């Protein structure tokens, strides 16, 4: 969702950078692009383990993520990703089922989907950060997506914008398309084994053709 449907990663990375820096944990803003697709707690614990050699306690994780979410909401910006509507329309016109698989738990964005992309995703066709234990790069979110869609791994395609999301899709055994909507270099997606790589959503919308597949 973030970075695919919404041009929101620049705001997420700023909120994450401010939040984690306030904790005295060394980090850079751009590194949070690499963690896109992970759940909030997973991101926090990754940085805690790197800095302190242990996980953060559950209560503190909740407080940290709430603070990050507050900083994100205060930016007050929700921009649709250019070209995302064209790609979704192509999928809809082909009669393909769309399953949203996101590591996000940001209700401010999830609640906006129907307004910004009417009819693109049924509310029952969503796997979010609130529905998983492990989150990306673990294959769990996409395995749940397959289960929700009632299809096999050979009948689905993953569309991702983050290396860890590509890793999750490939670990689930699904054909995975990467779209570089942020500053992450193409090589990072190649290293994760992306089956196709596009430089933008408009390019993907123009060049991709679909027939009898289910898009996750």
State the strand order across the main sheet: 5-4-3-6
Q: Tally the helices: what do you get?
A: 11
Query: How far is the N terminus from the C terminus?
Result: 11 Å
Averaged pLDDT: 90
Tell me the series of helices and strands, N- to C-terminal: HHHHHEHHEHEHEHEHE
In short:
The chain has helices spanning 9-22, 31-34, 40-52, 58-74, 84-93, 107-110, 113-116, 140-149, 163-171, 186-191, 201-207; strands at 100-101, 126-127, 156-160, 175-179, 196-198, 214-215.
Question: What tags apply to this protein structure?
Answer:
alpha/beta; 11 helices; Rossmann fold; four-stranded parallel β-sheet; two-stranded parallel ribbon; DNA polymerase, domain 1; 216 residues; 45% helix; 6 strands
Write the layout of secondary structure elements.
Blueprint (H helix, E strand, L loop, with lengths): L8 H14 L8 H4 L5 H13 L5 H17 L9 H10 L6 E2 L5 H4 L2 H4 L9 E2 L12 H10 L6 E5 L2 H9 L3 E5 L6 H6 L4 E3 L2 H7 L6 E2 L1
Parallel strand pairs: 1-2, 3-4, 3-6, 4-5
Helix pairs in contact: 1-4, 3-4, 5-11
How would you describe what is shown here?
The chain is α/β, with parallel strands linked by helices and 216 residues long. It folds into two domains: 9-74, DNA polymerase, domain 1 (Orthogonal Bundle); 84-215, Rossmann fold (3-Layer(aba) Sandwich). 45% of the residues lie in helices and 9% in strands. The protein is built from eleven helices and six strands. The chain has helices at residues 9-22, 31-34, 40-52, 58-74, 84-93, 107-110, 113-116, 140-149, 163-171, 186-191, 201-207; strands at residues 100-101, 126-127, 156-160, 175-179, 196-198, 214-215. The strands form two sheets. A four-stranded parallel sheet has the order 5-4-3-6. A two-stranded parallel sheet has the order 1-2. Strand 3 (156-160), helix 9 and strand 4 (175-179) form a beta-alpha-beta unit. Helix 1 packs across helix 4 and helix 5 runs parallel beside helix 11 (201-207). The radius of gyration is 17 Å and the shape is globular. It starts with 8 loop residues before the first helix and ends with a strand. The model has no long low-confidence stretch (mean pLDDT 90).
